[in-house]
Amino acid sequence: MLFLGTKKHPEPDSYDSFITEHGGQNNAYTDEEKTVFFNQVADNSLEEALDRFSEFFKAPLFNPDYEEREAHAVNSEHEKNIPNDEERTWFTIRSLAKGPLSSFATGNLQTLSVLPKQQGIDVVAKLKDFHKKYYCASNMVDKTHDHKSSSYHRRPTRQLSLCRQGRFPSKKLFYGRNSRKKQPISMLTYLFEYPGNGSLAKRLRQMGSGDKVSVVADRTSVNTLFAVKVELTKKGAEQRGVVLQEVFKYINLLKSQGVNSRVISSIAEQSRVDFHTSQPSGSLMNEVARLAHNLLTYEPYHVIAGDAVVLDPDSRYVNHLLTLMTPERAIVAFSDPDFRQTAKSPKIEPFYGVEHTVADLPEQQMTELTNIVADNGIYRVPPAFSHVPKADDLKLKPGISGMSVPELLGEQDPTFGHSIWWQGQGTLPVPRVNINMKARTPSKHTNITSQTTTAVLIAAIAEQLEEETVDLENCGISQRLGVAGDGLHIAFAAHTPQQLQHIMEIVAKKFRDPVVEEERFERIKQRIIDELEDPASMMAYEHALETAAVLLKNDAHSRQDLLRLLKSDRTTLKESMKTLQELKAVHVDAFVMGNISKPEAKTAVQSFLTGAGFGTLPMRDAARSLVVEQKTPIEAVVPNPIPHDVNHATVVHYQLGVPSIEERVNLEVLGQMLNRRLFDRLRTEEQLGYIVGARSYIDSSVESLRCVLEGSKKHPDEVAELIETELRSMEEHLRSMPDEEFEHYKESTRAELQKPVQNFSEEFVRSWDQISNHGHCFNKRDLELTYLGTDFTRKQLIRTYTKLLEPSRRLVVKLVANLQPSKEITLIGHESLLSDGSAPLEQKRSKGAAFADYSPKLQYETDCSSAHKRRTGLALQSLDEGPVSKYQEESGFYPEVTVCELAPSMLLKLEEDL
């Protein structure tokens, strides 16, 4: 309500439109005690943006006409959160903790509309009163100091006590701001999440009872809720009492032995190294939001570093907090997927619908947990950090800075051998070294079976490495392993070449002679199965995007296919080991950047590949992650797999193809325009859902436009039609758009393209993206800016948009709540999708549309009255690997190429005229 118009600018969307047209974005978040607003806008529009922003605090309208609409917006956000099991569980625990944190804080339609009306409460009047009482200058901090005095001069100052006194006594576990300098949550997190020898996590893994131990914390000025979370295996769930005993054995060991000052001081020492070798966030808006939050948390002197550096390491304080972790203070919660079958007379939490029972721990059990101790040698206090870099480790090497473009090392042809790229320290040097490698595996051995079995094995090796290298990881010396559709992804990071060599030797040995315990492999396989069988781990719109990926990518697979394979006898440790050996002939693209010389970079990569036992593979024989060249429209109707989720999700996707430099820029501008249009129309006006938007994106070498909406208010049939209407009306808007608006979007895009890289990591990723996909277009932004400044016109924009909205390149995914699985259907290429693409499938059936069963060849019928062939289409009842792969093979794939040159201006002008 605050952002829906002011006396000076009464239009409800005026601020959002201004920010978008001037190259910016804005958002806000509210936690238990504060609201942080953050905005970003082009430099030359800052003063006007700040003036407009300040009006929300001086004279907002709080127009009652929008009250119901905004209540629905809040309700949509709440409905989005309901399926999330972690959020549901944590809220239930909080509600049992009593005090101010136990209340339902986000709101829904019942609390914001239905109940107030029943009780005669004027919500708008309450909002105005709250705004008048708490939105006072004495309670505000602002990071734009240059303009604050002029923009906020009419915001009245009121008594600070109005905002600081509360109903709850100030009895705190953590003693206000000073405790934050000690970073107690960080210290406790290290103690409980440590996975090395003698840790709780490793013990539970060895017992087969748990996969991971993590910490969850909610902290306010009133109190702190600190939780130790164990992700249980099936065995652990059956023996949760034993797991609880292990947790308290570990806590009691920490209490009895104590955490010495060396452990705490070493963490503080590493935090100082991390801070002094860090660079600004890649998102200036997020950085401003962080600093605004810190202004309300730390003294001014500590605002920049207070949340990153342990300013006051205090082992006594940490040990004091450990003494407070007693069974009497604990809430022990167990999340049981079979709860409904086992519980008697459960309570139902009213806002998230969580069924639960509550019981006191028996006195005997609390006494047992208080006194329980582990056998000698099982647990130990995590050690002090032993690899904190010294001053000499942080000195920058001379003569390798200022490189903005990577250099290919060696004489080898990258199409036949490994390619190693090096960029020195880049343009923003820090005492760090990063290496990324993509190892493309043989195409003849790369398929869903090899990808899946190898993924389980690599996850097991990664867990071993986590336990063995945690002391290196804590000091910034890290490794990451992963499996993608086209091969293995391996990454390393360290402060020095010597540290890098050490961690790479450890990983190389794991690849050369992998030894994985059968129990570990089976536990991790079951964990992956559990994750795939838990649809609530993703939101509805993410399931819809997953469906689109299965249809359009050669290496994306349905959950059903993956589960069938994981549960089959093909996914065993023995088979996985055999498969890994078959995949060791690889084509590697490696990128090295940082405080490392050219010879050291080349040696590091070559030594790793040799030590790990990788062979060489010509690029022509390597697997590729490709996108289907869509030649006919597709519509998929699938059920929302999340139990009891009321949300639908709709994805409308248009494929542009391999873009030219000009088309990249045009689609970036169009994406901004369409995102604003859909957000204003479908979210702000229609309130169809909390997640609404459009954006351009590139996958492999293919550029597309994607529109997404998640919500419960309208069926996806209606939503798809509304999105299509907005997309079609956009073309006319492009023709009639005022020149001023057109120029705003042009300048917004220019500002984004001219924005320099903010830090070492951003520069590394930007170069790596061009290397990993074989684009090698390192001057892409310069070319885009050249086009924007010379040949970018309204006609060029319309030309790209017309090409984009070609009906044969449309994909629609309709994910429907409460749809029976038997109703799932995917239509590919039926003429009804061309003639009436937005109509519901039931209407298409009623019109007599014929849906052919799938056969190895796409079916055609010959129309004797003409020389044309009419495709009867393809109807898939599921997205199984077989029929989807056959469809993809017949359609063909876009090549993995990148256009890295501008078309002549004369040619572009000719195309405009034509």
From TrEMBL:
Keywords on record: Hydrolase, Metal-binding, Metalloprotease, Protease, Zinc
Q: Which Pfam families match?
A: Peptidase_M16, Peptidase_M16_M, PqqF-like_C_4
Q: Which Gene3D superfamilies match?
A: Metalloenzyme, LuxS/M16 peptidase-like
Q: Where is the Peptidase M16 middle/third domain?
A: 283-563
This entry's Gene Ontology molecular function terms read:
metal ion binding; metallopeptidase activity
- Ranges for domain Peptidase M16 N-terminal: 1-83
Could you tell me the superkingdom of the organism this chain comes from?
Answer: Eukaryota
Tell me the ranges covered by the Coenzyme PQQ synthesis protein F-like C-terminal lobe domain, including all copies. Answer: 669-768
Q: Which InterPro entries match?
A: Metalloenz_LuxS/M16, Pept_M16_N, Peptidase_M16, Peptidase_M16_M, PqqF-like_C_4
One example of a Gene Ontology biological process annotation: proteolysis
For this protein, the record's SUPFAM superfamilies field holds:
LuxS/MPP-like metallohydrolase
Family assignment from sequence similarity:
Belongs to the peptidase M16 family.
The name under which this protein is listed is: Sporozoite developmental protein
